[in-house]
Every structure is written in structure tokens, then in C-alpha cells.
Write a sequence for this structure.
């Protein structure tokens, strides 16, 4: 089953690839060599998984996307106040190459325009320009998660033609913003713009910021935590130049674009996104990149200001049908089948408010488990709600798994509108809807039946006394004598066959056809089902051990046909045939031991 996140991204890529507006950046001659068709998208989760589509491995120069990362290094090296004294944090609303300086101090308005970035490059630690370059390179490498290199021809191309940037650098020197040699800082700035990355690298850089400054795969801290929000703030207000306001309004993620065609977007605490497509609009932002972010934000409610609960807790635990079987007492064939196969039923206890990132994690875990899974039970008891987009992905996953013959069923969503409605609204046409059970026991029993292929089995098979666990090992001729003492009774579906607390009348029941549930009454007036029984099984046999009141209620789930035997009759017969009594007591002991073992397993699984 392909991840629905992957399917979504492939679909998005296909739709947006048709967009061919825009032009390659031409003011740096070397950039005109890019292929306008290049287009990659990568989304990285906070536990480091990358979903990639298209030309995700195509290297290109990072250009202005280097700016927030060099700003990060300057903050880490000089501290907030020293950096603020040289470079402001006000959006200029101007183009990236504008000369927007504070009229009083001469300080560039923010570090995302070229003037601010060139000043920032002069601020990172290092006694010489070479040492400062090594610092820039190592800082960017920590964000990417590998050592990065420079595209020398792009660097030379820009350095030979970057007259406007050269003018800006001299101006910064004039205002005392750059202390040292301005041309050396400018060359470092050109080099940082020529660092080679692919859009996967960008997504990891973004994910590192989303993850509070720690690279999600290497675990290396790229930036002290207290500076992360500063970097994200200037990205949010200034990252898209004179498009920044509309961007925040429509997309709502701190972002940065570069004239190489890259865009990064950060959803703090949740995702990092990298996109590459070199066709640019008049403001120097990737046309397809913007469109991808708009649609992602809309389809998955990724706007930073939209609330999304706490998705990280989405999956609280996983166990299997072998750890916690249903409370039904299966017949011998089915028990053998379940002993071998019940681990292929997986329970997932979901937790909290389920948004896209939480559900992405859940689906990913399900896909990992899929090769060894026959059915998934999603226990929704602890789920507070589910977003529309998460419900849509979950439904897509359910259909995808169904295609691989893996069932996904829900338990405990009864009458919970915050879960049921988003799930049913996003069910596809032709989808028969999701299967929901009132409790885990009913759900796992359904899964066990499916495993055993028993849905049909129950309806069609007829049990006889010989199948009953109580009469195992009893010779046929003796069994015939027992059978002669029985009477047959048919109970309508829904009938109460036995009631808890009722005086035991000595009747023992053998199911010939149909299914019953064994129920114990609860404080709140409801019932807890502790087992269900089918053809060939017996109930009420505890009277043989001298029990005088019924300890549980028995309800007919379907029309049930039983053979009924009286304790008195058995006692009379075993006076003549003591081996009958011995066999019965032996079988009872075995049965009770089995029930005890299952109860113990349950207690362990619940602990
Ligand atoms: N190196 C480019 C410049 O300084 C970066 C511009 C950009 O990516 N917006 O002009």
C-alpha cells in the first residue's frame, strides 16, 4: 500500500508541473543553464522521514535561502543584541536587491534582503574571511545534515557580475555596518549563495528549524533553541520579499525563496518542506514553489495560525490479537487457526487530536506492519477529534489497505460526532464506509472471524454433542445414550437464555447452530460481553461443579438451536457409567484452565 501522503504529493506534482509561467533568473548568467522543467518536492517529518517527488535529487544553488541560515550562525556567534545593532528585523516590502537602509543608522531593514544578508555574512565568527567562510559552511552543513560544497562556476558568474551587490557592500562600509573589508564579506556572501543543495536538503534544513534547531536525523544541534524563533520570525515577515504579506496571509508558513528556484517552508513543531522549480515570477520567487505551498497549506491546514492540537501523541500503543484475543471460546479448529495467526490482528490505540502529522505517523506505522497484518483495529477511545484532512488521509489509507486485502476497522467511535463526521464526510464514492464496533472485543472477534474465514462457517455449520469440549474422549456409544436424554430448544435472536443471578435449574446447553454472547451486568446498567460461543460449544456447564446461581447472562445473538441436558439426568447416567463422570470432570478442568489462562493474558495485556 502506497502512503496516501506520497500519493497526494505525486498528484500535486502532476497538477502543478503543467504550470509553466515565469522565467529563469538571468542576471546571474550561469543560472540560465537550468532546465525550466526541473521540479521537485520534498516533505520531511520531525522524526526524519522524507517524502519526495520529482527531481528531488537535482542539485542547484541555494541562493537567498542561505540567508536565514547564515543569520542563524551570526545570532549564535554574536548574540541577539549585537546582531540587532547592525541588521534590523522590519519587513521592507521591497525587492530582494533593494537598498533598504534605516535612514538614521544605515542598518539594513532585515537580514533577508541582500543588504542585510551581506552585513550578516560579515558578523559570523572568525578572525579572517577564510575562517568566517568555514563557519558559514559548517553552519549550513549542520542544517543539511552533510558537508555541503559550492558550485564554483555559479559563484564566479555572480562574483564577476554582481555590481549592484558590490555597491551595497560599499554602502554598508560607509555607514559603519561592516567593520572589516567589505569585499571579503561580499565574496563570502556570493559563496554562501552558490552552495549546492537539492530540494531534499532544503526540506531537512526546514525540518531542523521546525524541530527546534536539532537535525531530525543526525540529532546534531544546528542552532541554540532560543534563536530558532528569531530566525523563523524574520522568515515569516521578510522571507518572500515584497510578497511576504500575501504569503503569510495565504500560506502561513515561515519561508524563504532563492533565485535558483528553491523555496523552503517551515511548519514549526511539525514539518519541513523543500521545493525546487527554477521558473521565477517577477518578484524572484519560484512560481510552482508558491503554488505547491498554497495547496499544501490549504489541503492540510498548515497555516501556522490555525490551531492543531497535539499531534505527536497520535499513537499511544500497539498490540496484537495474540496478546488480547476476543473473549469468545473458539472451537478447536478455530483455536488452532488463531494460535497460529492471531498476531496478524493489530490493535492501534490512537490518542489526542488527530491532525495530518499525527495521522501521517499512524499510517506510516501501519504500512510498516502491513506485511504481517490481516486486520487493523483502530481504537479511538482516547481520540479527542480528527481534522478533515487527517480523516481524508485515513480513509484513503483504509481503501489502499483494502486493496491489499488488509481490513481497517474502528472501535469505540460510537456517537462521537467529532470523529464520525469527518470520517464519513471524506469517505469516497463507492466506498462502502468504515466498519465500526462498539468495543474492542467485538472488533477483534470480527477480525478473528475474518482470519478464520468464519463468517460463513458460523451460519452454515452445525455442532453436535461430539464437538463439545465437555464430551471430548467420551466413546460414541455412551454419547448416544447421553444424546437420548437431551431435548432440543430454539431461541429467537435477541432472547435472554440465562440471566445473571437466576437460580441454577441444572440445565446445560449445547449449541447446534447460531451464536450466543455471555454477558456480565455492569454498574451503569449496561453489559460487558465476556465471550461469545458458536456451534459445538456449551454453556451453563458450571452447574456440574455445584454452582447454584447463574454467574452470567446468555443472550442469543442469532436464532440459536440448543440441545439441553439436565444435570440430574447426567448424574443418573454416571452412576451406571463412572467413566462418563470422570471424562466430564477432566474436560471441565481443562476448560476452566484454558479460560483462566486467557483471562490472565487479558489482564497482562491491559496492565
Ligand atoms: N545571490 C543572489 C543575489 O544576491 C541571491 C538572490 C536571491 O536568491 N533572491 O542577487
Amino acid at each position: 500500500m502506497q502512503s496516501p501522503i506520497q500519493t497526494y504529493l505525486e498528484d500535486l506534482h502532476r497538477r502543478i508541473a503543467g504550470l509553466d509561467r515565469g522565467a529563469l533568473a538571468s542576471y546571474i548568467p550561469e543560472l540560465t543553464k537550468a532546465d525550466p522543467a526541473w521540479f521537485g518536492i520534498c516533505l520531511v517529518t520531525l522524526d526524519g522521514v522524507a517524502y519526495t517527488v520529482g527531481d528531488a535529487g537535482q542539485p542547484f544553488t541555494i541562493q537567498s535561502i542561505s540567508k536565514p541560515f547564515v543569520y542563524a550562525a551570526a545570532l549564535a556567534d554574536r548574540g541577539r543584541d549585537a546582531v540587532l545593532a547592525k541588521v534590523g528585523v522590519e519587513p521592507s516590502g521591497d525587492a530582494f536587491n533593494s537598498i533598504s537602509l534605516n535612514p538614521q543608522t544605515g542598518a539594513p531593514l532585515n537580514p533577508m534582503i541582500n543588504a542585510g544578508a551581506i552585513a550578516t555574512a560579515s558578523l559570523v565568527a572568525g578572525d579572517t574571511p577564510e575562517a568566517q567562510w568555514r563557519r558559514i559552511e559548517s553552519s549550513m552543513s549542520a542544517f543539511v545534515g552533510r558537508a555541503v560544497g559550492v558550485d564554483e562556476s555559479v559563484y564566479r558568474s555572480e562574483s564577476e557580475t554582481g555590481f549592484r551587490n558590490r555597491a551595497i557592500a560599499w554602502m554598508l562600509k560607509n555607514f559603519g555596518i561592516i567593520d572589516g573589508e567589505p569585499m571579503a564579506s561580499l565574496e563570502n556572501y556570493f559563496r554562501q549563495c552558490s552552495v549546492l543543495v537539492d530540494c531534499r536538503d532544503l526540506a531537512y534544513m526546514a525540518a531542523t528549524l521546525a524541530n527546534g534547531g536539532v537535525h531530525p536525523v543526525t540529532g546534531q544541534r544546528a542552532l541554540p533553541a532560543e534563536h530558532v524563533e528569531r530566525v523563523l520570525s524574520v522568515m515569516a515577515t521578510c522571507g518572500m520579499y515584497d510578497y511576504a504579506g500575501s504569503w503569510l496571509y495565504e500560506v502561513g508558513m515561515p519561508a524563504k525563496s532563492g533565485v535558483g528556484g528553491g523555496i523552503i517552508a517551515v511548519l514549526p513543531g511539525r514539518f519541513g518542506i523543500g521545493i525546487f522549480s527554477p521558473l521565477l515570477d517577477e518578484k524572484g520567487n519560484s512560481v510552482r514553489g508558491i503554488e505547491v505551498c498554497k495547496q499544501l497549506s490549504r489541503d492540510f491546514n498548515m497555516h501556522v495560525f490555525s490551531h492543531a492540537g497535539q499531534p505527536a501523541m497520535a499513537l499511544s500503543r500497539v498490540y496484537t490479537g495474540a496478546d488480547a484475543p476476543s473473549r469468545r471460546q473458539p472451537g478447536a479448529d478455530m483455536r488452532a487457526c488463531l494460535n497460529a495467526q492471531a498476531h496478524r490482528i493489530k490493535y492501534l490505540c490512537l490518542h489526542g487530536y488527530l491532525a495530518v502529522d499525527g495521522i501521517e505517523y499512524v499510517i506510516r506505522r501501519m504500512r510498516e506492519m502491513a506485511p504481517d497484518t490481516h486486520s487493523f483495529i483502530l481504537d479511538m477511545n482516547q481520540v479527542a477529534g480528527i481534522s478533515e484532512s487527517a480523516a481524508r488521509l485515513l480513509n484513503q489509507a483504509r481503501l489502499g489497505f483494502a486493496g491489499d486485502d488488509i481490513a481497517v476497522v474502528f472501535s469505540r467511535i460510537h456517537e462521537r460526532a467529532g470523529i464520525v463526521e469527518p470520517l464519513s464526510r471524506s469517505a469516497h464514492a463507492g466506498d462502502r464506509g468504515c466498519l465500526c464496533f462498539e468495543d474492542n472485543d467485538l472488533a477483534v472477534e470480527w477480525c478473528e472471524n475474518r482470519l478464520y474465514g468464519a463468517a460463513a462457517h458460523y451460519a452454515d455449520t452445525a455442532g453436535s454433542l461430539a464437538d463439545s469440549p465437555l464430551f471430548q474422549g467420551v466413546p460414541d456409544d455412551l454419547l448416544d445414550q447421553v444424546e437420548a436424554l437431551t431435548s432440543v430448544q430454539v431461541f429467537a435472536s435477541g432472547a435472554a437464555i440465562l440471566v445473571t443471578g437466576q437460580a441454577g435449574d441444572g440445565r446445560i446447553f449445547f449449541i447446534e447452530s447460531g451464536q450466543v454472547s455471555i454477558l456480565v451486568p455492569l454498574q451503569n446498567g449496561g453489559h460487558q460481553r465476556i465471550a461469545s460461543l458458536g456451534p459445538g460449544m456449551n454453556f451453563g456447564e458450571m452447574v456440574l461443579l455445584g454452582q447454584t446461581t447463574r454467574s452470567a447472562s446468555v443472550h442469543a445473538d442469532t436464532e440459536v438451536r440448543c440441545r439441553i441436558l439436565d444435570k440430574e439426568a447426567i448424574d443418573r447416567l454416571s452412576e451406571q457409567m463412572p467413566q462418563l463422570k470422570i471424562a466430564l470432570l477432566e474436560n471441565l478442568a481443562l476448560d476452566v484452565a484454558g479460560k483462566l489462562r486467557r483471562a490472565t493474558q487479558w489482564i497482562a495485556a491491559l496492565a
User: Anything to note?
Assistant: The mean pLDDT is 89. The chain has three domains: 4-299, 311-454, 460-606. The domain at 311-454 is CATH 3.30.750.24 (Transcription Regulator spoIIAA).
